[in-house]
Amino acid sequence: MSSRGGARPAGEPALVVRGLTKLFADRVAVDDLSFSVAAGEVFGFLGPNGAGKTTTVRMLATLIAPTSGSAVVAGLELADGNRLAIRQRIAVMPESPGLYLRLTVAENLEYFARLYGVADVKARILAVLHAVNLAERADDLCSGLSKGLRQRVGLARALLADPAIVFLDEPTSGLDPVARREVHGLIDNLRDRGVTVFLTTHRLEEAERLCDRVAILDTSLRQVGRPDELRDRLFSKALVVRTAAPLPDPGRVFAAPGVESWRIDEDGRYVLSVGDARVAAPEIARALVAAGADLLSLSEDRHSLEDVYLELVDEDVEARRLASTGSAPSSARRCASFAATGS
Amino acid sequence: MREFRRNRFVIGTMGALPVVFLITPLLTIFRIPSSASGTAVRAAVGTISLLLLIVPVVLPPVIAAYSVVGEREQGTLEPLLTAPVRASELLVGKAVAAFLPAVGLAYAIYAVVLVGVRVGAAPVVRDVFFHPPQLVAQLLFAPLLALYSIWVGIGISTRVSDVRVAQQLATLAGLPLLAFTSLLSFQLLRPTVPLAAGLALALLALDTAAARVVSRLFDPERLLTGRPGRGDIVEAR
User: Which of A62, A93, A116 is closest, CB to CB, to B233?
Assistant: First the structure.
């Protein structure tokens, strides 16, 4: 099953968004979004409820009109004249798969295959059912399927017209862990096929596991980048040192090259802010050995995407609070700031 | 269509109403004696004709009212709107899905009544029933009334949030048409072929206007977000 995404010229982005804004009356739903998504990329779109994720997908899928801004979707300018052509090149799977429950799996797919003008409908249905491991359930009524299986049918429907971009809106919402893992596997398959996936989610571990890059949205775009890039951008790099007993003079030990500051956390571990962990770690190990410390572990402090997300969203909450009260910003909140206690 | 065929509510309503509309006329027809006066026969046939014209008015809303709000209730509207089809194509598809069974049933009921009249009714009844303008009026008006009812049903379906409410409102909205059909059925307007053709043209114009109004009412943005959309993406750039 080849994808149109794979057939696109190398290097041409699948999606380019420039200043996209949507107002509902005087409420700003999405504010001045600009980003691009490379062909074949799995792009995560993260944000809290009401951040504008679904509104963005609907604008890009030509379902609702932006108030301002522009976009190029699958090589086509987001314009009224391109509405049908864009829809022919993309697929959208909303949060609820939206199946006709009185129809069988195959009948649901056949209906949409005809709407999309798919050639050789039967063969195509079989191919997409195989792609989502549902071929043996083709004749089952959708009403009898579990939520996870319905989600798979929704994904099969999304693949019917061989789209260049698949928009998945909260595809694992409400699924149990097993069904969620299956959907993750299917998204991995899409990536392997070269399909561009635009994944909206508020599951951070899902975004971290599946996405090449993520955008964090809270009405406006807060950050875009690879999860590790975002971590580096927002948090200081840190090393964590555990010793069998407290160091008698940690300030002298941690005066090693590359260490910018250090502190002791609530578990009695030494947390060191460093410029480059790969340079600093051997120096610190040598200094600890030289000081006669019983070293239990020396590891890099990994911030999760969740830390990144909470950092950004908390900033927004704080900004909104300040805007409403007119008070001065608090400096005590940045969760990853190092309070230097020595050196 | 397949979806509707498996919907018990739709099938129940579409099945029960025709039975009522079939039994009542046949019983009325068979009870009219040969000695009945011309006025009495015309009154009875008028009632039956009206009943037969009610069928294409009250059946389509069962399906048409379901067409948009029903999709929205079961979550299939957004995938449908994302498909590469024009809103007008979507609406015509919805209208056809309501039109074919409703008009098919209306014609089928009329055919059974005609056969019943031919076989078992008194000659005076037969003469009135098989009066050509009466036949033309029934055959022409059934699809035209159904179309109007369908567009009203779809239009209401785009603006309400509950299938039952849509069906009730759509049925109510079709009732004024019965006043119009009553004029012919009770021969307050003497049915002639030119009159029937003229009224049919008027109904056709009404259907066309209703289709245009529904096309304007069908706003995907309002359906998805509850707020009216600007419609044209180009304007937004």
Answer: A62
